[in-house]
Design goal:
Layout lengths: L1 E5 L9 E4 L9 E11 L1 H8 L3 H4 L5 E2 L3 E9 L11 E5 L11 E5 L3 E3 L6 H5 L2 H14 L7 E5 L4 H12 L3 E6 L4 H7 L3 E4 L12 E6 L6 H4 L3 E9 L4 H10 L6 E4 L6 H12 L7 E6 L3 H8 L7 E5 L1
Parallel strand pairs: 9-10, 9-12, 10-11, 12-13, 13-14, 15-16
Antiparallel strand pairs: 1-2, 1-4, 3-5, 3-7, 3-16, 5-6, 6-8
Helix pairs in contact: 4-5
């Protein structure tokens, strides 16, 4: 089978399409024939070696956590699925492996695809939408009527965060460039702010949650924007953000938390239900063939993608 590998950490040019043996599912696992794989900024960080403490120095390594495709083979102990069923999911392992023609994933990390969307749209969902859902629902416990500020609202996680926050009943202020103001309003934002024209740190409003998806702010600089029990949530897993998370998570008052997404079948089914009901619409910037993975990573690193970038396998 074809699979994207790299033999050293570095720029997009280290990525290459290689040949490998089709994987076999173990107990509790499913082998999926991949039709599309989502690309995330996290993939670029792994490729650069930013997480080498967990990804290690052994090569070749693989990339990709988001996938959508058809069930090829069920491992021992897996019930409730049949061969050729359409599924989507996200593997929790750091090195992924979804940039490939086949991937093996634990049964609990995938679910049936919504019938109303394409493979490309389905592959755009798992990591980004689950990140948004787990940040809004699990960490911030967003309630109807609360005020949410989303910095980076037009990207992969941000575009889902706007839609999910509205489902949860929040009042959403979306932050993005002038070119994307119309887009985030169409996604459901109540207010839209051009970050080039407005300094977020001077806003007079106090928010119940500041979701810093873009990652160019931090808790210490932003906590004055929070209500008395407001929550700041960051998506960048570095030492400073992890430290604030550990220091403030169990304290009363304002908190600075880090969302670390985990793929869960129940969350994927929740998202699939919202998609089927027309409450969530996956936003794709562009789809590229597997052979153009270098170009896809180069584009992701511009941080200008509107929604997700997807590889068509």
């Amino acid at each position: 089978m074809r699979i994207v590998q790299f033999h050293k950490y570095g720029p997009p040019q280290v990525l290459e399409v290689a040949s490998s043996k089709q994987p076999e599912p173990g107990r509790g696992e499913v082998c999926v024939r991949v039709s599309a794989a989502g690309i995330n900024p996290k993939d670029c960080l792994v490729r650069k070696g930013k997480f080498s403490v967990v990804t290690g120095k052994k090569f070749p390594q693989t990339l990709g956590q988001d996938f959508a495709g058809q069930v090829e083979k069920l491992g021992p102990g897996v019930t409730g699925l049949q061969r050729s069923e359409r599924v989507f999911g996200m593997v929790n392992r750091w090195t992924g492996g979804a940039y490939a023609e086949y991937i093996v994933a634990p049964f609990d990390e995938l679910a049936r695809m919504p019938e109303t969307i394409s493979y490309e749209q389905a592959a755009a969902v798992p990591l980004a939408a689950q990140t948004a859902l787990q940040a809004l629902r699990n960490l911030a416990n967003v309630q109807p009527g609360q005020k949410i500020l989303i910095n980076g609202a037009s990207g992969g996680v941000g575009s889902f965060a706007v839609q999910i926050a509205k489902i949860l009943g929040a009042h959403v202020t979306a932050v993005c460039s002038d070119a994307n103001l119309k887009l985030v309003r169409e996604l459901g934002a109540d207010e839209a702010i051009d970050y080039r024209q407005t300094n977020l740190l001077t806003l007079p409003t106090r928010f119940d949650m500041f979701f810093d998806v873009f990652g160019n702010k931090n808790y210490s600089r932003s906590k004055h924007l929070l209500t008395r029990r407001g929550v700041y949530v960051h998506t960048i897993p570095n030492l400073k953000n992890a430290a604030w998370h550990l220091l403030t998570r169990w304290l009363p008052g304002k908190r600075g938390l880090l969302v670390v997404v985990r793929s869960r079948r129940s969350d994927l089914e929740t998202l699939a239900g919202w998609i089927t009901a027309g409450k969530i619409h996956p936003l794709i910037d562009r789809s590229l063939p597997l052979a153009e993975v270098q170009a896809a990573h180069t584009y992701i690193e511009t941080k200008r993608a509107r929604g997700k970038v997807v590889l068509v396998v």
